[in-house]
Design a protein that fits this description.
The protein has 22 helices and five strands. By secondary structure, it is mostly helical.
Length: about 525
């Protein structure tokens, strides 16, 4: 009788679905999970959308904005491999501005609309981190998403119309989709990972760094786990050893719907299709645009070794120490725990990813603050993993304390950076940003145009060689001419660089008077001149 009962018990245990190690929640999403996840997304949305037009555009935003303006108005865009990044940002921008123009007409092409693109992708990064619940556990996923939601860098650059936040989103999109495909090999997840990979490659040339780090991290992970030969790894050799959440389904329950030929063939067609369509500008620049997507690495390797953005290998650590200390500390905690336990394959892989991406970007001479987002992304994941392990250990609910402290510190820095000191060059992420006084000059030009009989048809001579992002703000002024030097002019308005002021006063002073001086960015000041026969 006892033997029969034992056999029944073993059969029941075999048929019973595996439990989640995170005993704080059931296998199904709880009301707590929905409330917390929704609150994080709402907080992330507020930080990224509130007063989105507060700070003037950065130089790079202005350049990207003009590319989008040409695409929006004339349908023209061709990829330039020598100076600018991939096409995905502009086509996503075209979608948003086109939808916006349905409601606002010509005004649909606005500062809010173009920044809305990156703000939405920034919110999407938080959402994707929540999608790692099965890998990190409930508390771990919420912790990783919290770190990203209030990260000064993630908030600040989500409000920039530049490529980096899209790059981070697609990087994480590959990881999340690939993990889901490993659990239940649905063709949809594999194709989502493929589409994310193609869009990553069409966003920025630095995809080669991320992929290179992954290709090193994968064998390093396998080798490290094999060398450790922990009892947990051996006991779970046929299961998913990389999730503190729900284990992978048994192989018999994971039969794919498609044959390998159909799956890989469709994925290859999707990848090539997206790559060719975007780089060829929907075949208006075919095949040159596709060739340029490969030739670009020759330009960027030269740029990476010699540029005005050349810094020592410690520069990223200096920047992150000042504004991302919570992510650094919690990420380091997660890395140590992952290597020490050597049980969860995904955790060990992400630990190698974190160290590898930091090393790769540190060794490249070319450094800009927004590239640091690629470094802190895996640190968010490792921070969430580390806190989850503390939560499940003797620390228990006390693990909330370091999370709350980290969130408060990051939130304070994010609010201060985003809404107060956004043009203070002492801030690491404020990298030659346009001064807020610049918008006063734009307002003055708009005011003069409003009183001019022909409105925005007023003539403007921009003599300053340093003028970005002015072309974006004067995009509706067809008679704005950019000379880059002092020229003889009879236009009502002149925009002059500080170094040109003496020459302009000497040669054109009889006809023009200076009406304003405005800081453009550190080391650059613009002077506004008005023809003397016009009342200011």
């Amino acid at each position: 009788m006892n033997q029969r009962n034992r056999r029944r018990t073993r059969a029941t245990l075999r048929d019973k679905p595996p439990k989640m190690p995170d005993q704080a929640v059931s296998q199904q999403p709880s009301r707590f999970w929905y409330w917390m996840g929704g609150s994080l997304l709402a907080a992330a949305a507020f930080l990224r959308l509130f007063e989105l037009t507060l700070k003037p555009l950065h130089h790079d935003e202005g350049v990207n904005g003009i590319f989008l303006t040409n695409l929006f108005r004339s349908g023209y865009y061709h990829y330039d491999p020598a100076n600018y990044h991939g096409p995905s940002l502009y086509y996503f921008g075209w979608i948003v501005t086109t939808i916006n123009s349905v409601f606002y007409g010509k005004a649909g092409l606005s500062t809010f609309a173009i920044r809305l693109v990156t703000a939405l992708f920034g919110i999407g990064v938080v959402w994707l981190l929540l999608c790692l619940r099965r890998q990190l556990g409930t508390f771990g996923a919420l912790s990783a998403a919290t770190l990203a939601a209030v990260s000064p860098g993630m908030v600040f650059f989500s409000r920039y119309f530049i490529h980096e936040i899209l790059f981070v989103f697609f990087t994480l999109g590959i990881v999340v989709s690939r993990l889901r495909y490993r659990e239940t090999p649905r063709p949809r997840d594999f194709l989502l990972a493929t589409a994310s990979a193609a869009l990553l490659g069409t966003t920025k040339e630095t995809w080669i760094i991320t992929v290179g780090v992954w290709l090193i991290a994968i064998p390093c992970t396998a080798l490290y786990l094999r060398l450790r030969e922990s009892s947990f790894t051996r006991a779970n050799a046929g299961q998913n050893a990389d999730t503190p959440g729900t284990p992978r389904l048994e192989k018999s329950l994971r039969t794919p719907d498609w044959s390998p030929v159909r799956l890989y063939g469709t994925a290859a067609a999707l990848f090539i299709g997206l790559w060719v369509v975007l780089y060829s500008s929907f075949f208006t620049n075919f095949p040159q645009g596709v060739y340029d997507s490969v030739l670009t690495f020759g330009y960027w390797f030269r740029t990476g070794n010699s540029s005005p953005h050349d810094y020592g290998w410690t520069k990223y650590l200096e920047w992150l120490t000042k504004l991302e200390m919570p992510a650094l500390l919690l990420g380091a905690l997660g890395i140590v725990i992952a290597f020490w336990r050597a049980r969860e394959r995904f955790a060990v892989f992400t630990a190698f990813w974190s160290l590898g991406i930091l090393a790769a970007y540190s060794l490249v001479h070319y450094k800009t603050p927004w590239c640091a987002l690629n470094i802190i992304l895996p640190l968010f994941i490792m921070g969430g993993y580390g806190l989850q392990q503390l939560y499940q250990s003797f620390v228990g609910r006390w693990a909330f304390l370091p999370l709350v402290l980290a969130a408060c510190v990051s939130l304070y820095q994010a609010v201060n950076l985003t809404f107060i000191d956004y043009d203070d060059d002492a801030q690491p992420y404020v990298y030659a940003h346009t001064n807020r006084e610049f918008l006063s000059m734009v307002d003055e030009i708009d005011s003069l145009a409003a009183r001019w009989p022909e409105g925005k048809q007023i003539g403007i001579s921009i003599m300053s060689p340093e003028h970005w992002p002015l072309p974006w703000y004067l995009r509706d002024y067809p008679n704005a001419a950019y000379w880059g030097k002092v020229v003889d002019s009879s236009q009502p308005i002149l925009v002059v660089h500080q170094d040109q002021a003496a020459e302009v006063d000497r040669t054109l002073g009889r006809r023009y008077r200076r009406i304003g001086e405005y800081d453009l960015r550190p080391g650059n000041q613009l002077f506004l001149y008005l023809r003397r026969d016009i009342q200011p």
